[in-house]
Amino acid sequence: MPPKVIRALRFLKPSMSDIAERKDISALLARYPPELRQSALMPVLQDVQEQHGYLPVEALEKISSHLRIPIAHIFGVVSFYSQFSLTPRGKHIIKMCMGTACHIRGGHGVLDEIQSYLGIGDKQTTPDGAFTLEVVRCLGTCFLAPVIMVGSKYYGALTPAKARKIIDGYRDGNESAPAVRRKEAAE
Ligand code: FES
User: Fold this and answer.
1) Helix, strand, coil % (nearest 5) of the chain?
2) Last residue of a domain, which of 53, 80, 107?
3) What is the pTM of this model?
4) CATH of the domain at 131
5) Total count of domains within the chain
6) Are residues 32 and 109 in the same domain?
7) pLDDT averaged over the chain?
8) What separation in Å is there between the alpha carbon of 186 and the centre of ligand 1?
9) Does the beta carbon of 163 sit less than 6 angstroms from any atom of ligand 1?
10) pLDDT tens per residue, range 107-124
11) What range defines the domain where residue 64 resides?
């Protein structure tokens, strides 16, 4: 990633909790000996993302110096895998599937409803930090199409109205619609 982009990313304002949490990365890095280098990179990135909800640039710099891997290479890995995010994400991640089965069974109508109801597009987060929307290609549960995933829960056979109800459930702190766990879905 070009230096000017890295500099620009630094201007993303961290919250006080971000700053406090970032101190903890040293303890996390201590679990990965520098000799592991490349083989430790993915697990470290996953751990940091799990801890922060995204990958702060400062954390990537620390990983770079700890594992002695060039920062440009780390940015290459982060931008290649869609599981990683360089910007803060919402409390609830909504993955909307737009793969073939979901597309054919009305996924576009559900996606339009979610976007207009939340006022955000793909890879955007609501101003209150409650929801991030991510459009994905297939969630591996095509028989539930059209399907969304919120956190680790699947919601299938969706209509625009059902999608709105699910979002309201998360807003109110209780998930109103019954979810289908991936394991159950596969049975
Ligand atoms: S196409 Fe949507 S889950 Fe596979």
Assistant:
1) 50, 10, 35
2) 80
3) 0.67
4) 3.40.30.10
5) 2
6) no
7) 84
8) 13
9) no
10) 999 999 999 999 999 989
11) 3-80
